[in-house]
Amino acid sequence: MTAHKFSKTDFIVMALGNIVGSGIFLASSAVISSAGAWAPLAYLLGGLIMMMEVSFIIEMSIAKPVPGAFKAHAQEIFGEWWGFVNGWMFWTSAVLGMSSEITACALFTRLWLPSVPLWLLSLLFAILITLINLNDLKGLSKAEAVLAATKISAIVLFVIFGGLVAFGLPIGGATPNFSEFHAALATPWEGVAGLLGSMLIILYAYTGTGIIGLAATETHNAEKVVPSATRIVTYSVVSLYTVAVFLIITLLPTESLDPDTSPFVSILTIFKIPYAANILNFILLTAALSSLNSQVYSASRMLFSMAKSNQAPKVVGRQNAKGVPVAAIWMSGLVLLGTALLSYLLPEKLFLYTICASGVLALVNWLSVSATHYFFRKKILAEAPEKLKYRAPFYPYLSWICFFTVLITLLSAPLYPDQLPGFYSGTLLLLLISIAYFLIPLKNPNQPK
């Protein structure tokens, strides 16, 4: 049986599903608390960095469309050790990120089912998402289309109605207030520290882009479809994030902003929309499920790639007749369930540190993509320039601009105490994965040392 391939629409849906999530629905409160009126600019700058990374991933994935995408390209350039570290780093980051999403799903569902234990809801969601991913790509993309459409539509509707209020059309008790922006423009340098302090959170919000390289290898006519589809994805996400945050600051009084609460909750309350709590809860649940679904996809594809290069147990390299890596999906699902259940056993702060580490690992992966791209382009030009059917712009400057921007963002974490736990735990996990390469006999003897 011929394996199904992603269409352009499927690709867009999967990419949007993986990128759009808590980075706007919840983390925007923390960003606004730090950056104030400069938060929209911070999201725009983060989006530009994300676009650089995506252009590198597309170029390499089209020139050499191999399973594992950027992990395989990094291994080709920097050797087997970094390929091993890069692959397991991505998978670990994805699983840790998924465990926070599954916990969120359980918490959202508790609004309607308050008597059901959280661990049982987590178990049910883990099974549901695993079963969805066991479908072929056609079935997977259909499920993701429904989930992703809900959360994207919610942001679009918010932008439309929020925009109407900003232009003077009253809705409920909402009124526009641009004083925050006037004050920021009057003393621009005062907001620089807050803007820089928010960048780590913002880059976390954009780190779902790894799915683009992984999905490109399973997309029909990738060299034509992927670049145009990715432009739609990146432009849409950056625009929606930037405008949505601008409207939140415009419509939501400063005293109503709570870093631990979604600003959309407060906005819907001001709009006086009937059943606002239930509506928003449904949107947040679908957003978390959508992110969870696409993250299981990307994590399982990376694990499958590592099994094929003998850097993971061979059993997870098994596919079914439809080309679905069923063993990798089951393993990712089981580990996901385990980490989610640990959230109810471990002290809250300890588990929170572990989850925050997923963002640090994702940004280290961005560093790897930028550095890999610089050397990859040189290598492919020397060996097979005809394969460069898509080229990231402004080479080689963009590669290093992106690399050092992400590096500075990571190194700035110690300046902001709230970000230290994620920085330290992420660094520890990276060190453990690096050491594991020399202790676990999974290396491919045919690969250069």
Automatic annotation (TrEMBL):
Membrane topology qualifier: Multi-pass membrane protein
InterPro entries named among the record's database cross-references: AA-permease/SLC12A_dom
Keyword set, alphabetical order: Membrane, Transmembrane, Transmembrane helix, Transport
All residue ranges annotated as the Amino acid permease/ SLC12A domain in the record: 11-420
Places the protein is found: Membrane
One of the record's GO cellular component terms: membrane
Membrane-spanning segments: 12-32, 38-58, 78-96, 116-134, 146-171, 191-212, 232-253, 273-292, 324-345, 351-376, 397-416, 422-440
GO aspect biological process, one term: transmembrane transport
Name of the molecule in the record: Amino-acid permease RocC
Organism: bioreactor metagenome
